[in-house]
Structures are given as structure tokens and as C-alpha cells.
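Q: For a teaching handout, I want to show students what a protein-ligand complex looks like in C-alpha cell form. Below are the inputs, and the small molecule is iron/sulfur cluster. Please produce the holo structure.
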Amino acid sequence: MATFIPFFIALLVTSILYKTVGWWGFLVIFPWIGASISLGRHLQGKLPKGQKDMGRRISILLISPVFLLFLPIFNKENLQLEGIVFLLLVGYFSKGVIHYAIAKVFGPLIWGRGFCGWACWTAAVLDWLPVKKEGRIPDSIKNFRIVPLVISIMLPLMLVFVFSYDVRRDYLYKQEMLWMIAGNAVYYVLGIPLAFWLKDRRAFCKVACPVSLIMKIPASVSLARVKPTKNKCVQCGQCNKNCPMDVDVMGYISQGEKVRDTECILCLECSRVCPVKAI
Ligand code: SF4
Ligand code: SF4
Ligand code: SF4
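A: Here is the structure, written as C-alpha cells, with iron/sulfur cluster included.
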């Protein structure tokens, strides 16, 4: 039954948004996302031991066309952070703002960084790269994420206030798709080499993604968390070794605590590899 929870949540979100905003696209997007995540959860349960993460990676791959094809074709809005700053600057409440609110600001109050684990279109590519993770990326390098965050916010601000870029005339319905394509291209152009260079598929998430820093704020108080079971942790270290986000899972679980680290993307790898089902 737990497998279907994402699908039920998606149906709830669909009905609320369709009733309030009235756009038919919501009837496609959210059921598709919910069904894909439920399928991934189901596959995680069914696949052989060493291949269970394939279920999540299939989910994230199935969801990516929603953001990379469906929305660009039928909605033509830029969902990247710079686009949201433009929209907020002119007080234009659009579907892009709804996406940001659900996936990156208010949703994470419930499902933490589940979007990063199961629905992000950038990670949909990164997670399939033929890279074998070697060690942890130092925390000092991870702090570098503040630079792209500042750039993503300052760029639209400067264009509007210094170079008099007219958002309503030049951006809305005209250059939004160009910004979306350019923003995504930058993410992939940075994310793919970073994965090979730092030997970590999720290197971009850890050292360069500006959105991750925004999501970490609501994720710090999220409801859904990886938690210990009644079984006792034998401190084998497998969870730490296999966590794609370098979370000190053992530190939390061996103390009987829920994992509060805001880097957790709810991929459930730690639970899968635990030999005593302590997670
Ligand atoms: S950290 Fe950024 S790139 Fe990585 S999964 Fe999350 S939103 Fe996507
Ligand atoms: S703590 Fe567990 S669920 Fe969270 S990212 Fe690490 S392996 Fe995935
Ligand atoms: S994998 Fe399980 S037993 Fe091993 S350290 Fe992690 S929680 Fe403890």
C-alpha cells in the first residue's frame, strides 16, 4: 500500500490545482509523476538485491520528459531559478511559480528533498552516468554552491535594475524558452564533467546546484525522514558507504535517531543495503 502513497498524493495535488488554476496540463503532469514514483517504489521491492536502485532511476527517467518536453511544448515557461526571480520581480504568478512552490519550497516541508531523489530532470541524466563513486566530496567544496545561487539571483536583478531589461515585454512568452534551454544546458555542461572529475554522479548536486541550498531550508523541518527500526544497528558502515549524498546515516541510526541531514534525497539506498534492516 505504501507504494501507492506517491500516486495518491499526486491525485490530491492534481485535484486541488485543477480546481484552483483550471489548467488541463495538471491532469497529465501530477498523475504521471505520482505513477512513475509508485512504479519506482514497486520496482525497488521487486528487483534483485544489487539492482534495486534501478527502480528509482527508472522513475526519475520517466518523469524527466514532463519537465523537458511536456512543459516546454504546452506551457513554455522557464522553470529555472532565474525565471522565478524574473516572475517575482514583476509580480507575475504563473505555473512556473506553482512548480517552484510545490517542488522546491512548500513540498519539501513534507517530503524533504524527495524531488532531488525522484523527480529532478538534471539528476535524471546524472544518475545514469557510468561513474563509480569514490569516497566523499569534502564539505569545504560543497560550500561553493553559494556562488551559483548568488549568480542565479543577481543575474536577473542586474538585468532588470541595471540594464533595464523589460520582463513583461521581452521575457514573458518570448525569451522564456531560451532561458530555460540555456539554464538546463549550463546544468548539464557543468554536471556531467563534474561527475567524472570528482568521481561522483551527484557531484553537481553537492557543489554547484543553487536550488539545493533553497531546498535545504524547508527540508530541515520535513515530515518524511529515513528512520531507525526496532532492529539494532551493528555499525557495519554499509549505509554510509552507499549513500549517494554522503550522509552520515550510521551516526543517526546507531543513535536511534531519524536522519535529519538536509542532503538526504530519500533514495532509500541506505535502507536497501542495511544487512540487519535497522533502517
Ligand atoms: S540538487 Fe539540484 S540538480 Fe541535484 S537533484 Fe536537487 S534540484 Fe536537481
Ligand atoms: S540517507 Fe539514505 S535515503 Fe538519504 S540520501 Fe542517503 S542513502 Fe538515500
Ligand atoms: S547499514 Fe545498518 S547496520 Fe550497517 S551501519 Fe548502517 S544502519 Fe547500522
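A: Two things your students might notice: Residues 167-197 form the longest helix (31 residues). The chain is about 65% helix and 0% strand.
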